[in-house]
Amino acid sequence: MSATAAARPLMRLVTMSGAPILRQLHLEERLLRRTADNWCVINDGTAPPTIVMGVSGRVSELVEIEPVLRDRVPVVRRFSGGGTVIVDQGTVFVTFICNKSAVAGLQPFPRDIMSWSGQLYGKVFDRFGEFHLRENDYAFSHRKFGGNAQSITKNRWVHHTSFLWDYDVKNMDYLKIPKRAPEYRLERNHTDFLCRMKEYMPSRSVFTDGVITALGEQFTVQPTDLETVLSSDEEFLPSTKLLSQQDLAEIISSKGSSSLRLQKVEEA
């Protein structure tokens, strides 16, 4: 091993395929809060299709609740900030969980973390399209293919991305167009605003291998079997939660009663 390689911080790599997004988020939150290592978690696809919301998102403003209830689409509220996405087998997830000292010169603020990740992914995509970090999204030209979320604690941070290798247009109908949309969206609907990575890259493995190669320029990347690292941690209670059907139904009923109250006031 060269002196340069020896000086690089260690990053443990966990690769999964098809892990449910709720299980992945519970794992990431546990790695963030219960370990002192740097981690990269890659999950290639998830099932069933699931809506994932940021910690402070309002369900009534972001989700078409009635069709979600009808079709029994799971809705998860994750521990990090960011927007709302629907994920499925066509989604590839990449998460970085790092100590504040892991990246030299990186200040643990959202914009600085986004800038670092944008440069890293620029190396992954430079042969495949006109890649841009647009506001808080990853885009080819003016169309989004990667949505990001972050959580920053006292000594550590997490940056996770859902990449649209492919997506089902019908699933996008479960999401409302958010009131606080990025400027570059220009009020476009989901299908005009989004693109698929498969239109730009030859395979999912070319993408994930590219991420690991780019990481290897800054870290000593060590594939890690989670079972050998994590002891049973029964006391850990993740804040990421699956919203129940009852939770969603109550939001609809409270909206209905609010409308009724408003109607009575107007009539008076």
TrEMBL record:
PANTHER family: BIOTIN/LIPOATE A/B PROTEIN LIGASE FAMILY, BPL_LPL CATALYTIC DOMAIN-CONTAINING PROTEIN
Pfam families: LplA-B_cat
InterPro entries on file: aa-tRNA-synth_II/BPL/LPL, BPL_LPL_catalytic, Lipoate-ligase_2_inactive
Protein name: BPL/LPL catalytic domain-containing protein
Secretion signal span: none
Stretches assigned to the BPL/LPL catalytic domain: 36-219
Organism name: Urochloa decumbens
